[in-house]
Write a structure and sequence with these properties.
By secondary structure, the chain is an all-alpha fold. It is about 85% helix and about 0% strand. The chain is flat and about 30 Å long.
Length: about 45
């Protein structure tokens, strides 16, 4: 992955999160963040 592709993907993710926060709010982001951390812990266990 080149730097240009990584920068483009990062900007796309930030734009999507920004639009999501503007339209819906932030309550679900906290829920998804905690679920993501649990998922990472689960993956670390199986490593």
């Amino acid at each position: 992955m080149t730097d240009r592709i990584a920068l483009g993907l990062g900007l796309a993710v930030l734009a999507a999160v920004g639009i999501d926060v503007a339209l819906v709010g932030t309550a679900h982001l906290l829920f998804l963040g905690t679920r993501f951390v649990d998922f990472i812990d689960y993956l670390a266990f199986w490593r």
